[in-house]
Amino acid sequence: MVKKAIIPAAGYGTRGLPITKVIPKEMFPIGLKPAIHYVVEEAIESGIEQILMIVSKRKNIIVDYFDESLELEAFLKRENKQHLIEIVPVPTFPIHYIRQSYAKGLGDAIRLGKAFIGDEPFAVLLPDDIMLSEKEPALKQLIDQFNTYKKTIIGVKEVEKSKLKYYGVISGEEVSKGIFKIDNIVEKPSEHAPSNLAVTGRYIFTPEILSLLDLKKAPAEGELQLTDAIKELLFREECYGKVVNSRRFDIGLHGDYVKLINEFSRINAKRKY
Ligand code: G1P
Prior knowledge:
Layout: E1 4-8, E2 29-30, E3 33-34, H1 35-45, E4 50-55, H2 60-66, H3 70-78, E5 95-99, H4 106-111, H5 114-117, E6 122-125, E7 129-132, H6 138-149, E8 152-158, E9 168-176, E10 179-187, E11 197-205, H7 208-216, H8 226-236, E12 239-243, E13 247-250, H9 254-267
Parallel strand pairs: 1-4, 1-6, 4-5, 8-12
Antiparallel strand pairs: 2-3, 6-11, 7-13, 8-11, 9-10, 9-11, 10-12
Helix pairs in contact: 7-8
The protein binds 1-O-phosphono-alpha-D-glucopyranose.
């Protein structure tokens, strides 16, 4: 059973500068909620019961957002606006936090979750990818697949050739419809991408990945990529890619963010994920 999830939210968000100097991209508004709220909802709707967020010292606003606000609650009660208390986000379980002191990459951020995860499979949700699903949340689709395969499952989606350079790209044999046994993964290929299947920011991992990340550690200069550890995992275990049946919006790309906002103005904020 996959019950724990890591949400890494410690990156600088350089693609979103200058606004990301003060507003983390995870807090970009979509309707009246910040992006990360949808990602937490997706995790909860997928059956996750414990969340660890990896933040940085510039991301206290995320911690504040999910914290109880006794003062705001008291104010709303006093003003006879109790109905508004419900829309203020307080997850039904506490969210745990770890600070990544140095921006040493996505792999290093996930590595910090080792003690929290222990020896069980876990989910990773990257909060700059917002997934809109007609039926099952994207993460739930991966968890269902994990329950069958009991192996690492990475969410993928076809993207146009010109955008492959922004993502991890997998290749492999299609073993059943939309499920690929991965034989290679390349991080942000500048050319010669091995396929057009890009990693979407939703993963289910066996705990082995954490040992691999721990062994690798981040270099003194530069970043530890999650993809590097996945490459190594491929030598030890089978890993699968699953095409998720959700629409993906990468809010790190301005065009996608604008499309997502337009989408929400059309369907209004009722949709949860
Ligand atoms: C990360 C991963 C990449 C993945 C992407 C999905 O890149 O390293 O493999 O495709 O997320 O959004 P980042 O967006 O952190 O540059």
